[in-house]
TrEMBL record:
The keyword Transferase applies. This is Phosphatidylglycerol--prolipoprotein diacylglyceryl transferase. Pfam families: LGT. It comes from Paucidesulfovibrio gracilis DSM 16080. The chain crosses the membrane at residues 19-36, 56-76, 96-113, 120-141, 176-194, 201-218, 230-255. GO terms for cellular component: plasma membrane.
Amino acid sequence: MIVLPEFDPVAWRIGPLALRWYGLAYAAGFAAAWFWGRARARQAWRGMSAPQLDDLLTWLILGLVLGGRLGYVLFYNLPYYWEHPEDIIKVWHGGMAFHGGVVGVALVMWLFARRHALSLFTVADFLVPLVPPGLFLGRLANFVNGELWGRATDVPWAMVFPHPASGGLPRHPSQLYEAGLEGLVLGGLLWWYSRVSRPRGRVTGLFLAGYGVARFLVEFTRQPDAQLGFVAFDWLSMGQVLSLPMVLFGGWLLLRRVPEDH
């Protein structure tokens, strides 16, 4: 059993301004996506240029933040925000949903593709391999913040998290499981699979199915959100329910027949 020390969620303070680990993870994830994306843009067969990437990333930040926040409000805590709508904008209090962020990013990509006369999957196939570093850093930030901990367990690597709501029980470090699967394993698979040209939509399919499977499995070790508990069949969490459509759609993209010119 490992007792996790209580880390300060604020990485740096400059006067009244506070830079939190989670915000730092977002910034570093976007920086990594920009640097790697610029390198990928030098390969013309990928279908996007460096200036297009620069333009798109600016809007993706907005889509991710708005989608992630609204996803959390709608999927995870709607009764509270229905009573306290003024708190919706208080993102500094926490509360972002990955699945909502996916919807927000997908909408931005669709609008961008229409504006530049590109296929949606040309844009998505270019971008999704850039996502796992941000997922990895985000889950590490969850771990440092001592949030989104796992279920109680007696495995040798169980950790006691400092937050009072964890009950002082040894728990799975589910944030690290997610960092490993969503960040390292999925990132490695996407890098390997996308190193050569693939039929349109295949890389996107691998990302959706891979993330969905990883999240679905890790959720068996993650403590369900206190305000929700299990939402289906008394054993499926909201994260698992929302991941199933990703797995199904991603699997369809991987298995569908694509015309030769695609």
